[in-house]
Recover the amino acids of this structure.
């Protein structure tokens, strides 16, 4: 799939799905269905218009592109969103972007999509334009709840990664560079690859998880992942993501590691002794291996 910044887009007829699409969840996928082009924004518009209310995101642009590509889309067009773009009237967005730059013949949006200065543009404005066909997709409900990025963020923050993955359509995933730790896991017999949470993105709540870890060489391993502040030890460190990658030999420092979270195994707790912690770690590893083997 081609990823293009809006200023660099080449004119051609397009079937365009428009939205922020953070997480590319099941509702987003209904909007994207049938489109050959997805138009999205970077950074998240709220981060520009109302920075103090900007959400912690589920996906960065690279992850979003990967998910969109998996849906058979030909091109992801990214709008470099800034205050000047935010000030454009809704009609100019339609004229300059959808028609002028993208040559849209079909436009697909969710029913709650808003655009243009002060969010004055909506689905009805698009429907009234006869230069393209407009498809408005109703919000998706699962188990009586609207599927939304904000709802899924809450699930992930609460540790409910299994259910979040169900609403996303794929496991919640994060990827970052492995950093050096204090090697305490190695001393205990369970070496870990350590990631520092990025405050701009959602991190699962404190606890231990089963996750699939994909290393830089593209190989995937079962892993037991601990997220928290290591309450059994006085480390002076802040929040840390520690992944014990099963059946892996080698050095991961300085390389990217992708973690796809499948299930929360337990909450974070303080142990009375190192021996008690090590015994629990052995149980966590076997539980993670079992979950990853069956994929849930």
């Amino acid at each position: 799939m081609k990823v293009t910044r809006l200023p660099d887009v080449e004119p051609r007829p397009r079937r365009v799905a428009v939205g922020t699409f953070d997480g590319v969840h099941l509702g987003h996928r209904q909007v994207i269905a049938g489109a050959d082009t997805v138009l999205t924004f970077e950074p998240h518009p709220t981060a520009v218009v109302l920075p103090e209310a900007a959400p912690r995101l589920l996906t960065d642009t690279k992850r979003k592109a990967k998910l969109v590509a998996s849906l058979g889309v030909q091109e992801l067009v990214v709008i470099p969103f800034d205050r000047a773009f935010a000030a454009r009237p809704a009609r100019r967005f339609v004229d300059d972007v959808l028609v002028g730059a993208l040559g849209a013949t079909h436009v697909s949006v969710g029913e709650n999509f808003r655009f243009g200065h002060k969010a004055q543009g909506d689905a009805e404005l698009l429907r009234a334009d006869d230069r393209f066909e407009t498809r408005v997709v109703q919000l998706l409900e699962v188990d009586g709840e609207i599927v939304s990025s904000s709802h899924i963020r809450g699930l992930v923050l609460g540790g409910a990664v299994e259910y979040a993955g169900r609403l996303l359509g794929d496991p919640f995933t994060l990827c970052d560079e492995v950093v050096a730790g204090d090697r305490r896991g190695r001393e205990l017999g369970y070496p870990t690859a350590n990631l520092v949470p990025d405050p701009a993105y959602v991190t699962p709540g404190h606890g231990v998880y089963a996750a699939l870890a994909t290393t830089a060489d593209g190989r995937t391993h079962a892993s037991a992942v601990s997220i928290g502040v290591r309450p059994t030890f006085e480390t002076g460190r802040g929040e840390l993501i520690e992944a014990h990658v099963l059946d892996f030999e080698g050095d991961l420092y300085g390389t990217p590691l992708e973690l796809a979270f499948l299930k929360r195994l337990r909450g974070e707790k303080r142990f009375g002794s190192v021996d008690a912690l090590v015994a629990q770690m052995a149980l966590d590893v076997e539980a993670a291996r079992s979950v990853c083997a069956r994929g849930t």
Summary: The chain has a mean pLDDT of 94.
